[in-house]
Amino acid sequence: MGRGRAKAKQTKVARELKYHSPNTDLAALQRELGGSRKSDHDFDDDYNEYVDDDDEDHADDDPDPWVRPNR
């Protein structure tokens, strides 16, 4: 499809979206957005096993590839 035809199709779709909005089920939208909320604390507990609680940086953790090694 050439650029002119593609642009015409995009324009047609944009006009349809702008002027002919579909019926929105606001109750379903509210249920989806309201949903069951999970607190941040619960989220953190799910990944607790992956958290490194050690505050110290160790030299062998993530070596910087741009630093020249000491000789």
Task: Summarize the structure in words.
- By secondary structure, the chain is mostly helical.
- It contains 3 helices and no strands.
- The radius of gyration is 27 Å and the shape is flat.
Q: Would you spell out the secondary-structure blueprint of this structure?
A:
Elements: H1 3-19, H2 26-34, H3 40-46
Radius of gyration: 27 Å
In helices, the fraction of residues equals 40-55%
Shape: flat
H/E element order:
HHH
- Runs in which pLDDT lies below 50 for 5 or more consecutive residues are none
Give the number of DSSP strands. Answer: 0
SS-based class: mainly alpha
Average pLDDT, rounded to a whole number, is: 76
End-to-end separation = 62 Å
As an assembly, this protein is: single chain
Main β sheet profile: none
Strand composition percent: under 5%
- Number of helical regions: 3
Please tag this protein with its features.
71 residues, single chain, 3 helices
A few lines on this structure:
With 71 residues, this protein is mainly α. It has helices at 3-19, 26-34, 40-46.
